[in-house]
Design goal:
The protein is mainly alpha-helical. It is built from three helices and no strands.
């Protein structure tokens, strides 16, 4: 598999993880939600693959840095969504009482 193909495969994996995060935003994305754990596992696996491919010379450090940056953006977006949902839940609860 060529370097460009591997980079494209990793990018598509990251995009899929992003779509999963966006889909999850529509539902309840609490601290103990099982999909949250799946996304975390997927991101951890991607991180290991990126590091392995750098060690094996399949992608450059610059490409790895970009991929890690995209992973961090996904994690940050997910954390922001969890916080927003918790604030929304607390606001609704306060209105009811």
């Amino acid at each position: 598999m060529s370097r460009a193909t591997k980079a494209a495969t990793i990018a598509l994996s990251i995009a899929f993880a992003g779509i999963t995060v966006v889909d999850a935003m529509a539902g309840n994305w609490g601290q103990n939600h099982p999909r949250r754990e799946q996304v975390n596992d997927r991101l951890q696996n991607q991180n290991r693959r990126i590091n392995r491919e750098v060690r094996e010379g399949e992608i450059t450090k610059g490409e790895a840095r970009q991929l890690h940056s995209e992973d961090r953006a996904i994690r940050s977006e997910r954390a922001d969504n969890v916080e927003a949902q918790q604030r929304s839940h607390n606001a609704c609860r306060a209105e009811i009482t």
